[in-house]
Design a protein that fits this description.
Layout (H helix, E strand, L loop, with lengths): L18 H25 L3 E8 L5 H7 L9 E5 L5 H4 L5 H4 L8 E5 L8 H4 L5 H21 L2 E9 L2 H10 L12 H7 L2 H14 L5 E5 L3 H18 L13
Parallel strand pairs: 1-3, 1-4, 2-3, 4-5
Helix pairs in contact: 1-10
Length: about 250
């Protein structure tokens, strides 16, 4: 079991990292990602599921736009998960998730995910602890199912934002015209539960790390996007993919 103490993990980029150099490297990586995603689609043997989890205002939307938005939209799908609909609530908690698991050749990005059902519901005590631990086991089995039976590689990122940076970003939504559309009064109520969410995340890392979590410092968007893009690039390269050869005369 993996053990993390979020209060002891930095939310900022290391001081020795140069911002301009890192942003330049990011641009190079984004070019590689476009080519690798095209190869993934053409070879049609693997798929990639990217799970983005984090507090409100940790920057999930920005990652989707600035990293995955650079790929060919034919080969990338993004699925946000909010409060379950009435139909979804009538099924097991993974029912709505499994419908969006990636097909071979595809990159699927989850903006929040099946982990909401062991985070939000736990923090608000909408389900009991016995249910939470049963869900931990179901999540592990589900992720192993994708990996073992559909050749799906799962990357799980936790965007680690500080309480101070979160509040600054939430406040920006009240006066920046470009960000007002994101404003939700409930986000400020959830922000008051910051430490409870950290504790819930630490338990998720402890019980659901058969496929490991990657904790990404998220106070600096440029560094967060670089780390995620680099990890996705390195993962796709590890597949050792090749373009299919021309098969003349095949019916």
């Amino acid at each position: 079991m993996a053990s993390y103490k979020l209060s002891q993990i930095s939310t900022t980029a290391p001081e020795k990292i140069d911002k301009d150099e890192t942003k330049a490297r990011l641009e190079d990586i984004l070019g590689e990602l476009d080519d690798l995603q095209n190869l993934l689609y053409a070879e049609h043997k693997h798929s990639l599921l990217v799970v983005l989890q984090g507090m409100d205002a940790s920057g999930k939307d920005g990652v989707i736009r600035d990293v995955f938005g650079k790929m060919n939209p034919l080969g990338v799908k993004v699925q946000p998960f909010k409060a379950p609909t009435a139909e979804e609530a009538d099924h097991d908690f993974l029912w709505r998730i499994h419908q969006h698991a990636p097909a071979k050749g595809m990159v699927q990005v989850f903006n929040r995910s099946h982990y909401e059902d062991v985070l939000v519901q736990r923090v608000h005590k909408w389900v009991d602890e016995e249910t939470i631990y049963r869900r931990f086991k179901a999540i592990n089995a589900f992720e192993q199912l994708l990996a073992q039976h559909n050749n799906t590689y799962v990357l799980k990122f936790y965007l680690h934002v500080s309480q101070e940076a979160q509040m600054q970003r939430l406040e920006e939504r009240t006066h920046d015209p470009r960000k007002m559309w994101k404003y939700n009064e409930k986000d400020f109520a959830e922000a008051k539960l910051f430490k409870k969410y950290w504790k819930a995340y630490e338990d998720v890392f402890k019980h659901c790390s058969k496929i490991p979590w990657i904790i990404v410092p998220a106070d600096h968007n440029w560094y967060k996007e670089y780390l995620i893009a680099k990890t996705v690039r390195d993962t796709l390269k590890s597949f050792k993919m090749k373009f299919p050869k021309l098969e003349v005369g095949k019916k």
